[in-house]
Amino acid sequence: MPPFFLRKTILGIALATIALLPGAHAATPAIDPLTQPIASPYAQQWNRPQQPARIHGDTYYVGVGGLSVVLIHTRAGLILIDGALPQSVAAIKEHILELGFRVEDIKFILNTEAHFDHSGGIAALARDSGAQVIASPLGAQALRAGAVLDTDPQAGEIESMPAVENVREIGDGETLRLGDVAVTARYTPGHTPGSTSWTWLSCEDAEGKECLSVVFGASLSAVAADDFHYLGDAQHADLTPAFRRVIGDFAGLPCDILISAHPDHSGADRKLTQLLEGASPNPFIDAQACRKYAAINEAKLDARIAKEKAAGAAGAAAASNE
Question: Which of 94, 104, 165, 215 is the most buried (most CB within 10 A)?
């Protein structure tokens, strides 16, 4: 038998030769560039553990504690909405398996908003499932770039994310069909230029009985960098009338169940806890949920506009005293 060092050399040559053979698969890298954590002061809070749950019919929560990710089971495969953080991917995949589904059966991944906390995990999930990613045109532009658009209210203050190469664009009011489920895109810009909410019917049985309208709501909050003005500036006109229309339209959506992109923005985090504890009736069923969510976010917009007006008045006063 050859000495140990020679055996090691022979083995190394053999393994290198196998790697070069046609059809040989490259080893999975020890560090996956698509799931590397994105640093954020909120990351730990957002990515806290959350048990998956069946919300209603074939609609399931598979996200983490502070970021909603929803799975819809259809007769022709699975639809996933959002991907949370890159560091959330492992938990999302575990939740899908725990519920008895396969990641490889995901056919579409829909996106609410191209911010790293809702889109950061999409590149890895799309790669691992082979799913087609769907977003609004402006959302798709940001996903392909792996960065928010220059017109985003938080541009310059929000982290980049893994870029998504293959994104299919969907129009406002356009319906995506898979098996027995139809999901409709509802443009809800304001928080981001390409924000999109998604609506569908969730039924308790195959005969289409006991169906409820579900809304996966994008963030509607007027969160922005200090130098961004919803009231308008040299870069853009006053955005508040359009944002108010979006919020008003959202309030009027058919909405028996609301799942907001951040669960705590609509009380969905509390409802998940109640649901997992066996609460009855289903705590997610609330025909006023979208109206309540709209009212909360209109109040936030009012507060933001008041802040901008106050800053403008203070600046004008300072200028007049110079």
Answer: 215
Closest CA to 246 of 194, 289, 210, 311: 194
**How far apart are the C-alpha atoms of 71 and 52, rounded to whole Å?**
10
- Give the DSSP letter of residue 61: E
> How far apart, in whole angstroms, are the C-alpha atoms of residue 109 and residue 267?
24
Secondary structure letter of residue 122 according to DSSP:
H
Cβ atoms of residues 202 and 56 within 8 Å: yes
SS3 315: helix
Among 14-28, 141-155, 176-190, 196-210, which is the least confidently predicted range? 14-28
Q: How far apart are CA 57 and CA 70, in angstroms?
A: 13
Largest Cα–Cα distance in the chain? 93
Residues 79 and 106 sit within 8 Å (Cβ to Cβ):
yes
Residues in the chain, overall count = 322
Nearest Cα residue to 79 out of 177, 164, 208 = 177
The answer to whether the peptide bond before residue 281 is cis (omega within 30 degrees of 0) is yes
Tens-digit pLDDT profile for residues 63-120: 999 999 999 999 999 999 999 999 999 999 999 999 999 999 999 999 999 999 999 9
Q: Return d(Cα 93, Cα 103) in angstroms, integer.
A: 7
35-320 CATH choice from 3.40.50.300, 3.40.1030.10, 1.20.1330.10, 3.60.15.10:
3.60.15.10
Per DSSP, the three-state class of 6 is helix
Sequence letter at residue 315: G
Rama region for 23: left / alpha / beta (φ>0; ψ in -120 to 50; rest): left
**Residue pLDDT, tens place only, 186-201:** 999 999 999 999 999 9
Strand 211-217 and strand 196-203: the pairing is antiparallel
Q: 254 by DSSP, 3-state: which? A: coil
- Residue labelled with tokens 């983490």: 64
Q: How far apart are CA 306 and CA 247, in angstroms?
A: 18
